[in-house]
Amino acid sequence: NAGVTQTPKFQVLKTGQSMTLQCAQDMNHEYMSWYRQDPGMGLRLIHYSVGAGITDQGEVPNGYNVSRSTTEDFPLRLLSAAPSQTSVYFCASSPGQGLGNTIYFGEGSWLTVV
Amino acid sequence: EDQVTQSPEALRLQEGESSSLNCSYTVSGLRGLFWYRQDPGKGPEFLFTLYSAGEEKEKERLKATLTKKESFLHITAPKPEDSATYLCAVNAGNNRKLIWGLGTSLAVNP
To answer: Distance between CA B6 and CA B101 in Å, rounded?
Structure first.
């Protein structure tokens, strides 16, 4: 009963380093997305995917890349980390993008860029 | 501009003291309003979806209602385990993305 699994849970990066946040879901969901959550800003959509091989930008995509080679996995890549990317990142999935589809969130990944 | 505002920012209740959280929205063409619960250090957990004014949904001590301008999350006789941040999100217009509020942090004292 794993649901949406994110790794790592915590990460400290130096400015300019790159890294990948991993996300996997075992519910065979078509729709996956990445959010960041910052105090006073709420949840903001970074990138999303409506199926394997299809990705699109969300509200705050700059500095991040995604790919969706399989239905299960949706990694988020930070290309050159900046202090402004210090945040909590949530991966989410749902059966589809329609309104009736419940969104399931992972436990979050806490990223600090120094 | 589409906007979702939640109030109050924080609420402290005594166990058994009922209250309501508010989610007001200004959007063009509401397609759905969602309530989520978020515990510290965890991801948001789905509670309810409301689609049209007048709709109500209940789950244990929680009841969500929707009008044309706002939604209320009523908490009846809360318990300490109801302590969490409650998030509201709205989907409107032709854009399928969600607009999230900042949440209400609820603390229920025993």
So the answer is: 6
Residue B98's pLDDT is 85
A74-85 average pLDDT score: 97
CA-based Rg of chain B, rounded to a whole angstrom? Answer: 13
CB of B54 closer than 8 Å to CB of B72: no
How far apart are the CA of A39 and the nearest CA of chain B, in angstroms? 8
A14 neighbors A112 (Cβ within 8 angstroms): no
Residues B82-97: tens digit of each pLDDT:
999 999 999 876 666 7
pLDDT tens figures, B20-78: 999 999 988 888 899 999 999 999 999 999 999 999 999 999 999 999 999 999 999 99
User: What SS3 state is found at B19?
Assistant: strand
Residue A79, phi then psi, degrees to nearest 5: -80, -45
Q: DSSP assignment, residue B76?
A: -
Contact with chain B for residue A99, Cβ under 8 A: yes
Do A14 and A81 touch, CB atoms closer than 8 A?
yes
The number of beta carbons lying within 10 Å of the beta carbon of residue A112 is 13
Q: Is A61 on the interface with B (CB under 8 A)?
A: no
Give the per-residue pLDDT at A81: 97
Please answer yes or no on whether B51 and A99 come within 8 Å at the CB atom: yes
Give the rounded distance of the alpha carbon of B102 from its chain centre.
10
Question: What per-residue confidence (pLDDT) applies to B94?
Answer: 63
Cβ B42–A107 below 8 Å, yes or no?
Answer: yes
Q: Please answer whether residues B31 and B89 qualify as being in contact, where contact means their C-beta atoms are separated by less than 8 angstroms.
A: no
